[in-house]
């Protein structure tokens, strides 16, 4: 069964009297344990699409199911609960909480969303701190670490809940070459262990090169789909 099913997804925005169509009749399916990248120029609709899949926004028209749930009919509270149980986010601007340490930022979703016991929280957070090379910075605050380090913390926070789906908007934009590949390998390991699906919006050729399914967006339309590495879905 597909993890994501989109049928004729459309998204309109109103600017005064003008209606701008950001997404135009997009249809696709993505299976569990996929490594997918949406690519295209700025303004092509990549981030808009990620926001719809992540239940941060709703389509103007069409059908969208994520993890066998019709997300179009979830209210705000239901959407928040669904995100907390199923989806991890990696934002381009990190979205770390400045009053929490590195460790606490990663632990936060386990406390606030999933109520994970203390011993399990410590195990998961420590493992991810080590995996992204941030164990020595665990007691620092976001304003005490670099942009690349913040991105590593954001990635660890997205993975700590063992989500079914991770949505990543330019996740390696602030990382050096070595760290970027380390993070990509960590994501692939999670995909293999937990059947996590990763969907990227990116210009980064490192991720584009590793993606097994590549969708091209231009002016809000899907103009291409390339399958690599033996995986395929609708």
Structure in a nutshell:
This protein has 234 residues and is an alpha/beta fold. The protein contains 7 helices and 10 strands.
What's the layout of helices and strands?
Blueprint: E1 4-15, E2 18-30, E3 35-39, H1 46-53, E4 61-66, E5 69-70, H2 76-86, E6 87-90, H3 102-112, H4 118-131, H5 147-159, E7 165-169, H6 177-194, E8 197-201, H7 205-210, E9 213-218, E10 221-227
Parallel strand pairs: 3-8, 3-9, 6-7, 7-8
Antiparallel strand pairs: 1-2, 1-4, 4-5, 9-10
Helix pairs in contact: 3-4, 3-5, 4-5
Distance between the termini: 11 Å
CATH architecture: 3-Layer(aba) Sandwich
Would you identify the CATH H-level superfamily? P-loop containing nucleotide triphosphate hydrolases
In the predicted model, the low-confidence regions spanning at least 5 consecutive residues are none
* Side-by-side strand order of the widest sheet: 6-7-8-3-9-10
Structural class determined from secondary elements: alpha/beta
How many helices? The count is: 7
Rg on CA atoms, Å: 17 Å
| Tertiary shape | globular
Helix content: 25-40%
- Our count of domains comes out at 1
